[in-house]
Design a protein that fits this description.
Layout lengths: L7 E4 L2 E4 L3 H12 L5 E6 L1 H9 L1 H8 L3 E4 L2 H10 L12 H15 L3 E6 L2 H14 L4 E6 L5 H11 L3 E5 L2 H11 L7 E5 L3 H8 L4 H5 L3 H31 L15
Parallel strand pairs: 3-4, 3-8, 5-6, 5-7, 7-8
Antiparallel strand pairs: 1-2
């Protein structure tokens, strides 16, 4: 059952929590120890636009146990809705800070995670990152090719992890949670589009194996293409947020924080 004891901001129809990352991590650890399956969902510009066109998706996200800001665009939208002053310092850090704090706690308790990702290189980089930084976390995972849902559910049930990470496009995240949650032997699902921003930030280099294979140029090109896509999606999302806010303001005047959105 969704809890309502913490403050939220409504962004394009979805309530997003404004709690600090450390509080969100503490709640996450609590959810992991409960009976039943809970969902922590990182809501981004991309998932917000998806929910705008898919009412069933919006309803599902609204009912998740905890909805958190998933990218810098969502963080800025929350700040805009709250009319908060400030120069934007720290924007884009929420999900990264959450993950580092969560991994630290999981490492101390020697917990097990299972990651479902869309690319093998993303899974490999997560395995390498956790193995280096948080060696007491038991980790495994699989690549989702769009057709192996039953196999993935079976693999999750064979491992019985404490947490399953669905690092996939939003429609695939919701597919697993809506259609297969009752079949998965785990207590908690964390849905986010990617953990790669954190890994890239802390390594800032192409994986060594790619360098040895002379594929590091491809890695940097893919990184650049991802940044371009996020910029386009963020621009569309920003316009919708401003239109939504302006619909109730006939004067059309900007709020003090609108230029920072």
């Amino acid at each position: 059952m969704k809890e309502h004891s913490f403050r939220k901001v409504n962004v394009l129809g979805i309530d997003v929590s404004t709690m600090r990352p450390e509080k969100a991590v503490n709640l996450t650890m609590d959810y992991m120890k409960r009976k039943g399956l809970e969902v922590v969902f990182f809501h981004s510009a991309e998932s917000s636009l998806y929910c705008q066109n898919q009412p069933e998706a919006a309803e599902a996200v609204q009912n998740f146990q905890l909805v958190l800001p998933g990218d810098s665009h969502m963080e800025l939208a929350i700040r805009h809705q709250k009319n908060s002053a400030g120069d934007g310092e720290g924007i884009g850090e929420y999900a990264d800070e959450y993950l580092k704090r969560l991994f630290s706690k999981l490492n101390r308790e020697s917990r097990e995670i299972y990651a479902v990702m869309s690319k093998q290189e993303h899974l490999d980089s997560l395995q390498e990152y956790i193995g280096t930084m948080y060696p007491d976390i038991f980790r495994s995972g699989i690549v989702f090719d769009g057709e192996t849902t039953d196999r993935i559910v079976n693999e999750i049930n064979a491992n019985i992890p404490d947490i399953v990470f669905f690092c996939l496009p939003v429609e695939q995240q919701l597919l697993f949670v809506k259609e297969y949650a009752s079949m998965m032997n785990t207590r908690l699902c964390i849905c986010m589009e990617s953990v790669q921003p954190l890994i890239r930030k802390e390594t800032e280099r192409a994986p060594e194996i790619l360098k040895k294979l002379r594929l590091d140029g491809i890695w940097f090109r893919l990184k650049k293409e991802s940044i371009i896509r996020k910029t386009v999606v963020g621009s569309i999302f920003k316009q919708k947020v401003l239109e939504d806010a302006g619909s109730g303001d006939a004067s059309g005047e900007k709020t003090p924080d609108e230029n920072n959105l």
